[in-house]
Every structure is written in structure tokens, then in C-alpha cells.
Amino acid sequence: RDGKVHYLRFERGETIGEIEVIGETDKTGTVINFKPDPEIFTETTVFDYAILKNRLRELAFLNRGLTITLEDKREDTKKEEEAFYYEGGIKSYVAFMNRTREVLHEPIYAEGEANDISVEIALQYNDGYNTNLFSFANNINTHEGGTHEAGFRTALTRVINDYARKSNIFKEDDENLTGDDVREGMTAIVSIKHTDPQFEGQTKTKLGNNDARSVTDSVFSEAFSKF
Q1: Which of 24, 110, 167, 215 has its CA 20 to 30 A from that of 190?
Q2: Residue 77's pLDDT band (boundaries 50, 70, 90)?
Q3: Which residues, 6+ apart, have CB-to-CB distance to 117 below 8 Å?
Q4: How far apart, in whole angstroms, are the C-alpha atoms of residue 152 and residue 86?
Q5: What SS3 class is residue 71?
């Protein structure tokens, strides 16, 4: 920064010494080196390449246009190196997850923002019966779902049923499709960015913000209705 390279060291949450200038540069940015502390990482301090690969690839999908490079320089490993970059973002993520399936159409994509909440959704149906729905809040995989996922589910079911009614696909006495019906064979990614996410559940992987429900519903409803 400001043409200088600044250096600071931390150990167990405390600074070690003062910040110091150790060189000059024409670049900006931050390099972080860290070594896992066995007092904190009590199960293992050895990195698993496959786990890192899956997580970094996921982050590259969730952050369109970002390049993440993973390089293993350990002496006792295979010296693997990979770079992850996806111009299509979560559209590419859905296609990746459906790569071994017979897909029925190109991925559908929706994005929008309201109340300082940004929403991205991609979905694609395949010829299978299983539902693969993954939701994220600020890049955190919300395994237990939450309000953003609920907003998407509600909008998906409502829009499909509304379309079927307006297009006379349903007869007058036909019942509406259920949520399980419309999600059969679906692969979908719901990703939101929230300035103040509230996580709930045993593992803190369930989003509890009520405003996320309505924003996700409205953003997806508008785009999916047009589709």
C-alpha cells in the first residue's frame, strides 16, 4: 500500500510486534500466510487437497469472474496445482452438477437486489427424480436451508402453478402441483449476500433473516415468470 510492503505477525489472536515496512512495491493487495496451530486445530494440522479443492471450486462458482489457484508445494505430496475460474458463476455450477445427467434445458438464471440484499439463483431440470437444492448466504453453505431457500421454494411452486392455470394446462378441477412435484429432477443454487446475516440451528448453517425470504421470492418470481 502507498508503494510500501507492510508486515505484521499474529499468534493466537494477538499481534506480535508492531506493523513494519519491509520493502517497496508497485502493487496493492494482501498476502496472508498462516500455519495451523495444533492448540486450535485439535483434530489435524494436515491439509487435505481434495477438501480444499472442492471448497475453492465452490467459492469460484459462487463469485463469478474470480480466479482461485490451488497449489500444493509440500515435499511429500504429488505437487498438484489447479486454477478455478467460472465466467458463468452459479449457472456454470448448476451445469457442473448436472454434467452426468440428461438435462432438459439450458440453466435458468435470476439475479437482483433489494434492501441491500443481493440474490442469485440458477436452476436446471434433468431427467432424474432427485432434487439437488443448495443454498448459500455470504458464501456459507446453509445446509439446513433457511428463509432465502424458503422464499425460492414458495416462488417456484407459485409461478409454475400460475402459469399452468393461465395457459389452461390445468383443467378447472385439477389440483395445484405441490412443492415436491415442481422440484422433482431439479438442480438449483440459491446464493444471497446479506449485510447482517443471522444464522440459526445447531451448526449455524440455517439463515434466519425474514427480509431474505421476501427479497429472494420477488427476485426469482419476476425472472422465472418472464422465462
Answers
A1: 167
A2: confident
A3: 192, 193, 194, 195, 211, 212, 215
A4: 24
A5: strand
Distance CA 195, CA 116 (A): 7
State yes or no: pLDDT of 88 exceeds 90.
yes
Distances in Å between the alpha carbon of 137 and those of 122, 149, 209?
Answer: 15, 10, 10
Please tell me the pTM assigned to this model: 0.88
- Read off the pLDDT of residues 133-184 as tens digits, 9 standing for 90 and up: 999 999 999 999 999 999 999 999 999 999 999 999 998 899 999 999 999 9
Which three cell numbers, joined as nine digits, stand for 173?
378441477
- Tell the residue number behind the cell numbers 515435499, with chain if given: 75
Helices (H), the chain: 49-62, 90-97, 147-166, 179-183, 210-226
Residue 156 CB-density burial (10 A; 0-12 exposed, 13-18 middle, 19+ buried): buried
Name the pLDDT band for 220 (thresholds 50, 70, 90).
very high
Instruction: Determine how β-strand 132-137 pairs with β-strand 14-24.
Output: unpaired
By residue count, the chain amounts to 227
